[in-house]
From TrEMBL:
Pathway in which the depicted protein is active: Porphyrin-containing compound metabolism; protoheme biosynthesis
Recorded name of the encoding gene: hemG
InterPro entries: Amino_oxidase (IPR002937), FAD/NAD-bd_sf (IPR036188), Protoporphyrinogen_oxidase (IPR004572), Zeta_carotene_desat/Oxidored (IPR050464)
EC number: 1.3.3.15
Highest taxon listed in the record's lineage: Bacteria
Protein name: Coproporphyrinogen III oxidase
NCBIfam families linked: proto_IX_ox (TIGR00562)
Family stated for the protein in its record: Belongs to the protoporphyrinogen/coproporphyrinogen oxidase family. Coproporphyrinogen III oxidase subfamily.
Location of this chain's protein in the cell: Cytoplasm
Catalytic activity: coproporphyrinogen III + 3 O2 = coproporphyrin III + 3 H2O2
Main location per the UniProt record: cytoplasm
Entry function: Involved in coproporphyrin-dependent heme b biosynthesis. Catalyzes the oxidation of coproporphyrinogen III to coproporphyrin III.
Amino acid sequence: MTRVVVVGGGISGLVAAYRLAADGDREVIVLEGSSRIGGKLRTEVVAGVRVDVGAEAMLNRRPEGVSLARELGLEIVHPTPASSRIWSRDELRAMPRSLMGVPMDLEGLRASGLLTPAGLAAVEAERLLGPEEIDGDVSVGELLARRCGEEVVDQLTEPLLGGVYAGHAHRISAAAAVPQLLELVRRGSLVEQAAALPTSDVPVFAGLAGGMGQLPDRIAELGGFTVRRNAPVRAVRRLDPGFELEIGAAASGAEALRAAGDAVPGLPFTETIQADQVVLATPSAPSARLLADLAPAASRLLASCETASVVVVTFAFRAADLAGLAALDGSVSGFLVPPSESRRIKASTFSFGKWSWVRDAGRGALDGEDVVHLRTSLGRHGEAVGLQASDDELVAWSLADLESATGLRARPVDVHVQRWGGGLPQYPVGHLEKVAAIRAAVAEVPGLAVCGAVYDGVGIPACIGSAERAAASLTAS
């Protein structure tokens, strides 16, 4: 029987293991360096209610996520009709329909008040522009600023991309993040074509009743593979045939002592296991270290990949404390913040307004009293706020911005701070070419595959698709 070791117990590693185990002729082992599986999918109890403190939704119009959830017997839910806002110039303004900032409804854009008359004029002028042939890749910000004006980038594109990548529009690749823009601009006006795109009754997003954090545990429960937690992989070496993996936490000075043949009592235990095939489902930095000898070219490219650190602060308030606040009456699902606003937070999700299951779970949760949950998000690429600030500072900044945006002055009954250091890979101009080169270098090592958010997209469906691609490459071989 073929033994496959998957390094990394996030959603990508778990799905890769699940698909490989289903092949029926493989012993599959997942090695997770921490005490918990799931990566950025995690739930915690806040004021007696288990809620997501990581990813809380997945794209519904991309099939991998909802298909897997159904396959696992999980209940899929969709957001309520509550609408989202953009916090701009001290007002929560209606978010007009757009294709990553390209307006799909000019009347809605005008009514929102997001753009100045000059900004609206630039959008109107784009309708007269002809086709544009893009030579190679270009950033989303550069393309849209050239076509629709910098105000569109600042007020619409930046907050939207900040929510997905925690990045900056003028650094993120259009080919990797929004390839549809490049297809449209080659045909003519972006604004005209965006306005003509058909509307759909299919919800954009989906979630799971009880939280997206259930997904990893269900995969592990039903997957037919073994999971080892607290098993960090320190090295992967090529054998002939197969691989040898070294497991165990590093300890200061231990390697020198071992090399000298001295006993090291009390140091972390190290072991090796062998595998016929290996999947690396780890972030770019640990993947680069593990590939240093196996695939040096891939290692160098992965080492050059940048990430953004973000923080999610989850609050629980007494429902009664929100009475009289229009923005918190359940009709609004949250808001995004353009970076030019110089606020501490970059977004807030009113979970009780966005997800019916969250609101229902909070009923009577506090000694019979109703509680409601909402979240703030902080951190963009290049900012160290999430790593350097204390929990108390992050909570205070979030509460101050929530008060300014919504008028909420109540004190929370419970708070949870979740830091995701280096949690979101960045997709700069040229990202697709880099990924192709990484995969080409990895393909030169028989029995080796890679997957994860750094390659094919940061969303849950994209990570699942990346994992399924890795699994298929190994089953085919």
